[in-house]
Amino acid sequence: MTRNDNLRAFATRNALGLAMTVFVILFAAAEPAFLKPENLIGILRSQALVAIMATGMTFVIMTGGVDLSVGPVLALSGVVNFYVMDAGWGLPLSMSAAIATGLLIGAANGTLIAALNLPPIIVTLAALSIVRGSALLLGGPDLHSIRGQPVFTFLGSGQLFGLPFSVVIAAVVAALMIFVQKLTPLGLLVAAIGENERAAWLSGLRVRRVKVLLYGLCSAGAALAGLIQTSQVHTAAATYGEFGTELDVIAAVVLGGTSLSGGTGSVARTMLGVLFLGILNNGMSIMNMPINLQLIAKGIIIAGALAAAQRSAD
What we know:
The chain is built from 14 helices and four strands. By secondary structure, the chain is mainly alpha-helical. Helix 4 packs antiparallel against helix 5.
């Protein structure tokens, strides 16, 4: 290969990292406050929930699936936590009930997809509507205030090692999922199913069980994100996790190089995708760009980055 070919190959493999570097330089040149430590920590804090949800979504997409219901699950988990806590059952039980709610929703999605061979996009789109309706049925359109719970408040608003505790949780979840992907049989099973599901099944792998587990983990991550958001704003509401939440999560995963057709993917690179979106959102906001222009610019930039990521995958 010539030197130009090597440079081109390097740029293609590292397109996301190079794009992040370019945008950091541009935003810092336009507004020096962008590089202030408090702003950089703010970027991490704003992306913590997306990071948590994107870890589970990475595994789901690696199997050739997708989960569009994570936004409503985020909302429902917060509402469930509020009502169980309000009934006097205590914080450990209320949080367990919220996580279990997400786990059950995900397991139901995975069962329908794996057992009945239904398209993931159809199943989870239906789940999006059902779960949102269930959240509204349970909590109504009102905000449900959560006060007098210092331990719960610390979950979303506390600090540890100088970082928001939500960022620490996201880092722990990401590290755990990277360990699972790299050093456990589950990581190999996910890749095998994504590469060729039928071949994996013929080889004796428990494809259905793995899918049910992965969708359960994905929704459990959304439920955890819902608990953190509820803690941050001291309220639970059925309207949280509005439309667009799942799109940010999916965009972060695909920006990180996970193929929508399944087989290849990396939780570690998904975290780079999460960080890229955070830099993009924060940079445009700190420059006081109108929200309508932000949405247009973000869409164009993400489309270009996804095209570059797809080219790299090819």
